[in-house]
């Protein structure tokens, strides 16, 4: 494509619509239209100029606003589809198979289809992520395509424009003026905070040009945000671990080397509806119990620099802190959150060693359910050997006891009881409900005495180094939208011909109402000719034509 | 009077003031026979003054309730929806002072009344805050969102006026149907209000036990005669009407019953109006928009989105993410309420981009603005009541 030389002598880059210097229309289409398209100042945009190579085609595709809106609408519809049924993260199942069954069982055929289409995990699906990626590409290309020429054009504005340019602006006036009209207009416009430049017989008044960069600033913000989201897929930027910790326990914090956490106490408090809480009485009566506080009192330890691995005294206390919802523990770029809990987990069980017939007791033993010992020696030669421990006993398979989980929900013990009378030992299998004697009738048994419980706190360990990037993106986005939406770019061109006739044109990217309000003040003060809104004229004409058609 | 009583009385005052202002705005618009706008602006001034008084009372309700409950009154369905009615009026006041258009008041105020009445059908007792809500972020996040939604909704009101003016009601068309469907759905909301008030005045209550979708036993109280029964229901109240149909476990038959009664009442009311006026509701309103400048309505609609969009971004996305990061350890979790906030945001982003091209200004924009309001209401009502998630208020 060739460069375009305007009648005024200026040489414009290929694809220009309005001469960069004087504003004359350069294309036939522009010459024939009643109003010029001012959106990008008639500059040459790459996407409107080249359409040969594959790169041009890709560029043009992504710089189109139609395509951009298309992507936004696709995302919007996809997002909505994902809320028809709960996503897999919200259903009470955690293996692929049980999740699949859950959808089928709970929602029938609809659930099966939803699951089969992958909608149960829509937001991490391949195609959804691709769509977001396309949004990012579109943002970048569309912005570059417009920003560069727009910036150049607004930077190099001339004061004097060709009358044909002015005549095709939406706000236009032509008529006789007084001698001092230009000067008074300049005065008034300056007072209204316009930047006024003059050149020979004309002036250009401009206000709020920076608002034109708003969309590009906000798009940059979005791109930074999306970049931050992408980064969290890289190892090291993002940690998300859960940590179940029992009261009294001290545990190494997963993925956080050198730090330990002790759970001193977990507390769940409900609203009582009494004391200062009477005001909630009515609501509590209606909905039942409502939680008031979840709290884990912790001690954070750090391993001393020079401590030997595993040394007990090699830790120093960093902090004591109550972790509550909305009040995570923060240290060293990590945060630990109160997320979940289990009340009254079994901690230890105490049994009495008795003779079944006489019910005489020969002593007691306590089995720690998390870390049981193998042998328990009582006085006078009585002892117990723990042969097998099944913390969450779920039944027998091929005669072998099974455990469903490693959590002590339903402990089962396979024990051998030794007494001076039975040195070979008697085998018995004990669960909370009953005792089985698999190898024949025994003389002795362990009788359940008592149980100790404690609460378990479910914490989440989190590090997210992308947060500052996301925050920056959000901030830039907000600055950009405020810049582009709460301000607007207003311009007036005024020229006085040698015979005293005034030409006036006005343009704004938004808020014509505000532009006219400004102009009315100037018109009154500087006695400018009355202006028309040519868009109104066109609309009226179109309407009249339409009605004419109906009448005829 | 206790602070709580003062608060509910102030809400009542606001309601009455809005009601009066609606009629005066209507009169101002209708009285403008010659199109001189003189009497219109005089009566408009009276009406906006009454609106301002109502709004002051409304703010009074808000802050006295805040004082009485000890937390920002934005924590349950009643409080949140009432606040939306209030910010809707607030948004109208901002745009009234920019453009001085009484006709906007004539449309916005009845909608605000409808929303406040709708809100009052939910339990208005003071809810205790669950741990996740015990933070200043509740006030910061939710109030910003509700202000933004109030402003964005003004764009729908302007759109509606635009459509009332331009859609030809004498010929059958999709547009005419769409417009009447909007009117019909507003009447349905009224139907819900009437049905709820009627059954609560007559003191209807029926208790059932049923088996929920996790196959657990549960109980439910109907406040309207049960048309639909819950899965494997057993009536506990002796003289309760026997449900006509039993629903499967995934459908909450109690809520479905409420919806059905609302539709029944609303539809009857709708046809009564049509019978009395012998016109479509849109046609009843048409004479009021005779002198409307549609360009101005288009501009108001656009301006409302322009003012509301950044506020919405701040409240519904940025503040929401900050809070979610503090309370739930992740700034985004694809919870349905979050997703619908994102959808609303994307929708208005699409609106702004479409308006960059010429073809989408005017009527198409007006339809989009109405659609935006529907999305906001969907998020407010349906997502809270149907798609339960972390944000569920009811
Ligand atoms: C969710 C994603 C997006 C958001 C939130 C967003 C936001 C915005 C906003 C607020 C404006 C200013 C509108 C106005 O002032 O009326 C704007 C302008 C614009 N956007 Fe986007 N945008 C997004 C995606 C895109 C995409 C994918 C494209 C690709 C074509 C795009 C292209 C443009 C263009 C060309 C403008 C006009 C620039 C100008 O007038 O100088 N946007 N965008």
From TrEMBL, chain A:
Record domain ResB-like: where: 65-519
CC per GO annotation: membrane
GO biological process: one example: cytochrome complex assembly
Places the protein is found: Membrane
Record-annotated membrane-spanning stretches: 67-85, 126-148, 216-238, 467-487
Keyword Transmembrane on entry: yes
Domain of life per record: Bacteria
Membrane topology recorded in Swiss-Prot or TrEMBL: Multi-pass membrane protein
Record Pfam families: ResB (PF05140)
Designated name of the protein: Protein resB
UniProtKB/TrEMBL annotation, chain B:
Signal peptide residue numbers: none
Record-linked InterPro entries: Cyt_c_assembly, Cyt_c_biogenesis_CcsA, Cyt_c_biogenesis_CcsA/CcmC
Protein origin, superkingdom: Bacteria
One annotated GO molecular function: heme binding
Pfam families hit by this protein: Cytochrom_C_asm
GO CC terms: plasma membrane
Domain Cytochrome c assembly protein: 91-193, 258-391
Topology term for the membrane: Multi-pass membrane protein
Compartment(s): Membrane
Keywords: Cytochrome c-type biogenesis, Membrane, Transmembrane, Transmembrane helix
GO BP annotations, alphabetical order: cytochrome complex assembly
Residue spans crossing the bilayer: 6-25, 46-68, 80-98, 103-122, 142-164, 184-204, 259-277, 304-326, 338-354, 366-390
Protein name, as recorded: Cytochrome c biogenesis protein
């Amino acid at each position: 494509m060739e460069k375009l030389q305007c009648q005024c002598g200026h040489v414009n880059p290929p694809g220009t619509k309005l001469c960069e210097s004087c504003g004359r229309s350069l294309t036939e289409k522009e010459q024939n239209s009643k109003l010029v398209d001012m959106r990008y100042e008639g500059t040459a945009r790459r996407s409107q100029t080249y359409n040969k190579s594959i790169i041009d085609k890709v560029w043009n595709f992504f710089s189109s606003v139609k395509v951009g809106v298309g992507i936004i609408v696709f995302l919007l519809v996809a997002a909505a589809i994902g809320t028809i049924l709960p996503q897999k993260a919200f259903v009470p199942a955690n293996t692929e198979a049980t999740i699949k069954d859950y959808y089928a069982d709970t929602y029938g055929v609809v659930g099966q289809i939803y699951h089969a289409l992958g909608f149960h995990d829509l937001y991490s699906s391949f195609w959804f992520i691709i769509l977001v990626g396309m949004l990012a590409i579109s943002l970048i290309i569309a912005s570059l395509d417009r920003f560069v020429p727009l910036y150049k054009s607004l930077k190099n504005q001339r004061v004097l424009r060709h009358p044909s340019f002015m005549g095709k602006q939406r706000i236009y006036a032509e008529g006789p003026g007084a001698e001092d009209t230009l000067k008074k207009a300049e005065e008034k416009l300056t007072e209204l905070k316009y930047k006024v430049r003059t050149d020979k017989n004309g002036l250009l008044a401009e206000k709020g040009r920076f608002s034109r960069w708003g969309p590009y600033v906000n798009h940059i913000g979005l791109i930074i945000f999306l970049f931050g989201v992408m980064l969290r897929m890289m190892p090291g930027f993002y940690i998300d671990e859960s940590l179940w910790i029992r009261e009294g326990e001290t545990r190494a914090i997963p993925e956080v080397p050198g730090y330990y956490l002790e759970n001193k106490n977990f507390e769940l408090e409900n609203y009582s509806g009494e004391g200062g809480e009477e005001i909630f009485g009515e609501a509590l009566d209606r909905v039942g119990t409502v939680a008031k506080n979840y709290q884990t009192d912790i001690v954070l330890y750090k391993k001393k620099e020079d401590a030997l691995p595993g040394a007990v005294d090699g830790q120093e206390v960093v902090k004591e802190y109550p972790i509550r919802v909305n009040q995570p523990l923060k240290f060293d770029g990590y945060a630990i959150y109160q997320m979940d809990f289990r009340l009254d987990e079994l901690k230890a069980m105490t049994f009495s060693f008795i003779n079944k017939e006489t019910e005489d007791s020969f002593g007691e033993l306590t089995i720690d359910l998390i870390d049981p010992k193998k042998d328990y020696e009582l006085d006078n030669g009585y002892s117990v050997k723990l042969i097998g421990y099944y913390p969450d006993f779920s039944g027998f398979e091929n005669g072998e006891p099974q455990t469903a989980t490693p959590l002590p929900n339903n402990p089962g013990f396979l024990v051998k009881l030794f007494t001076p009378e039975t040195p070979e030992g008697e085998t018995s299998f004990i669960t909370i409900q009953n005792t089985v004697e698999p190898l024949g009738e025994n003389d002795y048994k362990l009788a359940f005495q008592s149980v100790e419980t404690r609460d378990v706190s479910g914490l989440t360990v989190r590090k997210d180094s992308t947060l500052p990037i996301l925050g920056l993106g959000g901030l830039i986005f907000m600055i950009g939208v405020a810049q582009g939406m709460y301000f607007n770019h207003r311009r007036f061109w005024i020229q006085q011909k040698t015979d005293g006739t005034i030409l006036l044109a006005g343009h704004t990217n938004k808020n014509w109402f505000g532009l006219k309000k400004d102009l009315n003040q100037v018109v009154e003060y500087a006695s400018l000719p009355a202006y028309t809104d040519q868009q109104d004229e066109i609309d009226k004409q179109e309407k009249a034509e339409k009605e004419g058609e109906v009448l005829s | 009077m206790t602070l709580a009583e003062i608060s509910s009385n102030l809400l009542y005052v606001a309601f009455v003031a809005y009601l009066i202002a609606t009629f005066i705005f209507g009169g101002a618009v209708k009285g403008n026979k010659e199109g001189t706008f003189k009497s219109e602006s005089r009566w408009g001034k009276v009406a906006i003054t009454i609106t301002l008084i109502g709004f002051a009372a409304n703010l009074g309700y808000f802050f006295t309730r805040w004082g009485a409950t000890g937390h920002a009154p934005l924590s349950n369905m009643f409080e949140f929806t009432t606040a939306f009615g209030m910010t809707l009026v607030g948004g109208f006041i901002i745009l009234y002072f920019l453009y001085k258009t009484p006709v906007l008041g004539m449309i916005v105020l009845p909608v605000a009344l409808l929303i406040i009445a709708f809100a009052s059908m939910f339990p208005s007792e003071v809810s205790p805050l669950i741990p996740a809500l015990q933070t200043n972020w509740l006030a910061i996040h939710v109030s910003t969102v509700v202000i933004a939604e109030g402003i964005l909704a003004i764009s729908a009101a302007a759109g509606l006026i635009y459509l009332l003016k331009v859609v030809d009601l004498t010929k059958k068309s999709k547009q005419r149907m769409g417009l009447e469907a909007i009117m019909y759905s507003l009447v349905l909301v009224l139907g819900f209000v009437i049905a709820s008030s009627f059954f609560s005045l007559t003191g209807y209550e029926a208790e059932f036990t049923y088996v929920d979708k996790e196959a657990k036993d549960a109980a439910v109280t109907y406040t309207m005669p049960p048309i639909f029964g819950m899965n494997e229901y057993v009536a506990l109240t002796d003289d309760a009407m026997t449900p006509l149909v039993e629903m499967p476990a995934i459908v909450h038959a109690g809520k479905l019953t409420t919806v059905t009664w609302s539709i029944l009442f609303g539809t009857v009311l709708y046809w009564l109006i049509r019978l009395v006026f012998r016109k479509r509701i849109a046609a009843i309103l048409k004479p009021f928009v005779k002198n409307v400048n549609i360009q101005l309505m288009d501009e108001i609609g656009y301006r409302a989105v322009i003012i509301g969009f950044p506020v919405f971004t701040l409240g519904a996305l940025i503040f929401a993410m900050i809070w979610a990061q503090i309370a739930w350890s992740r700034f985004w979790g694809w919870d349905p309420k979050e997703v619908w906030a994102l959808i609303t945001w994307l929708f208005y982003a699409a609106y702004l981009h479409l308006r960059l091209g010429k073809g989408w200004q005017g009527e198409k924009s007006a339809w989009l603005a109405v659609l935006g309001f529907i999305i906001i209401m969907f998020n407010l009502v349906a997502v809270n009541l149907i798609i339960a998630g972390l944000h569920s208020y009811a």
